[in-house]
Each structure stands twice: as C-alpha cells, then as structure tokens.
Amino acid sequence: MIKNEKPTIFRAERLPLKVTLLVFSGSSIMCVASAVDPLRAANRIAGETLFDFRLVSVTGEAPVTTCGLPVAVSGRFDAADTTDMLVVVAGFGTQNHATSALLSGLRRAARAARACGGVEAGTWLVARAGLLEGRSATTHWEDMEDFSSAFPGVDVRPDRYVIDGPVFTTGGASPTFDLMLHLIRTRLGMAVALDVASVFIYDQARAATDAQPLVSLGRLDGYDPRLAQAIRLMEAHVDQPLTIAAVAKRAGVTARTLESIFRKSIGETPGAYYLRLRLGAARRLVVDTRIAMADIAGRTGFSSAAAFSRAFSRAFGEAPVRLRRGSCMSPKSLATGLTRACVAVLG
User: Fold this and answer.
1) What percent of the chain has pLDDT over 90?
2) Mapping DSSP to helix (H, G, I), strand (E, B) and coil, where does residue 52 land?
3) Is the dihedral angle over the CA atoms 164, 167, 171, 175 positive or is it negative?
4) Residue 306 confidence (pLDDT)
5) How far apart are CA 311 and CA 277, in angstroms?
6) Kind plus residue range of the DSSP H or E element containing 119
7) Where does residue 21 rank: exposed (0-12), middle (13-18), buried (19+ CB within 10 A)?
8) What is the rounded distance in angstroms from the CA atom of residue 38 to the CA atom of residue 47?
9) ∠189-90-301 over CA atoms, to 5°?
10) Which pLDDT tens digit goes with each residue over 95-117?
11) Distance (Å, rounded) from C-alpha 139 to C-alpha 123?
12) How far apart (Å, rounded) are the C-alpha atoms in residues 270 and 38?
C-alpha cells in the first residue's frame, strides 16, 4: 500500500459500504447492471443493506445508454457528497464529458472516498483526472492501444480487471460483474458470493488477470477446440493477416479440414470470417476515433486505403468516410447505427 493510502475496501468487513455510481450517456446498459445488480443481490441474500448504493449523473437527468434505455438516477453528482466507493461508468462519447469541472470533481471525490475506479470507458475519465498516474489499470480491449498512448504514466494491462491500491478499473460488462463478485467475496465471504453468482446463474470461469479476448468464445461446449485456436490466431494477426493455410498449419490441421470446421461451426469459410473480424475492428476505429483512414487500413491488414474502402463499403453499405461523418450523433442514434451495421455484416 502506498504511503498515506486508505485501507482497501477489498477486505473482510461487514460494515455498510456507501457506493456512488456516476453513469454517463453512451454507457452500456450491461455495464451499469453488472456494477449494480450483484450489490443489490448481496443485500437481499444478507438480509441487510451492506452495500448502500445510489446512481447519479452529471446533470441529474437520466443518462441514455447505447441501447436507448435511460437509467434512472437519484440526482446529480456532487463531489462533496460522502461515499466510500466511487464508480465511474462511461462508454461512447467519453471525450465530450471530460470538462475541467468534472475532472476536478472526480479528484475531490476520490480524495475523500476509500476507493474509486472506472468501468469500461470510465477508465478514461479516471485517468484524465490524474488518478491512475503511476498505477496499473485496464480498459476495454478496443481502446487499449490508444489509452496507452494517451497515458504513458499508466501501466496498462490487458487484464479483465485491475485493482491497484484504492483504484480499480475494468474492461467491460462481464469483468465488472467479476469485480463486484470479488468485492462481495472479500467483504462478506465465499458463501455469499456463491449465492449471488447463483442468482444470476453466473459461472465465473476467468481470473482477473486473464487477458481480454477480441472474440468472446465462452466455453464453446460441443465445438471443435481447433476452431477456438484458429480464431485466436486470427485476432492476434489483424494488422498482418496470416494466410488461411498458415492458420490451419498452426492449428494443426489442413486448410480443407479448417474450412470444414468453420462451415460446420459458424456457417462460413475461414477467409470470410477473418475478413469480417478485420472489418469489425476497422469499423470501431472509424466510428470511435479520428485516426486517418490510411492508418486504419494498415492497422486492419489492408494493402491500401482504397482497398480498405471498397471492402468496407461492400460490408457496411457505405464508405468509411461517410460513416464517420454520420457517427457524430446521440447515443440512441449511435446504437441504432451500430445495430444496422451488425445486421449488414452478419446477414
């Protein structure tokens, strides 16, 4: 523990913990639920309010999540309010929220709280407030490279969630659920944590330090394990794509066998899946960043910006430049656009 740090909240302690969740428009509803519902369930199982949580927003109005659903809040964020644990939940459009007043408020609230942290893109706001300097942290895998460049003083890790002293960060919805289960387990014991997991029929099969995958494969029960191996190889070589023959060789099968595995399991060829994986990564860079199209083409394995634009247009129905131009929209509209793009790619 760093000198002058408060004792961690992740320890055996049955005293009520005051938790403030600061939720921003553009957040994922799953991230909000993963942060709140395990605490709610723990209170019900324990028969008392051991997690005294409340949701707030910057303005006091209901933030709108990416699926278009608003989140009811009890009021506006006030840095002077007493809390033990401050959780910043954010998603799309995070850069628009990083005002000097907000960052100052986060610093003030963090100094008074016993712990603070960011969920998914909330990590960016916590970092911009200077609360991660010299510490280890994580964020969503899509943002890992840009986050590392923006905050060179932070030890960025690909872990599902990271706890460094009084500061915690998570990579997304499922890791947030894992973090909250860890909080419940350390404070109230394994029995309560298991009961909470059972409420949601949730099987925590991953450790905090497991790397975040680009493609969440789950357990792939009933699927050929060589499918998972091939997909992992593909996601590790998005910028410099391997040939399908090379993927097959590394997976220990022939190219024909690999094609059979993909057709049976996914319903498309390895080449088609690999292209879709790369275009999905490219689309996120087009919509969520200001990176030049030529650089996006290079990052996702296309020989030129022109080749990238042609492939992108065929998959999504419009050129990447045009999509970027239309991506400056409300979270609700953005969610609709993302849904349409997914339908276009998946057929």
Assistant:
1) 63
2) strand
3) positive
4) 93
5) 12
6) strand 115-120
7) buried
8) 14
9) 110
10) 778 899 999 999 999 999 999 99
11) 6
12) 39
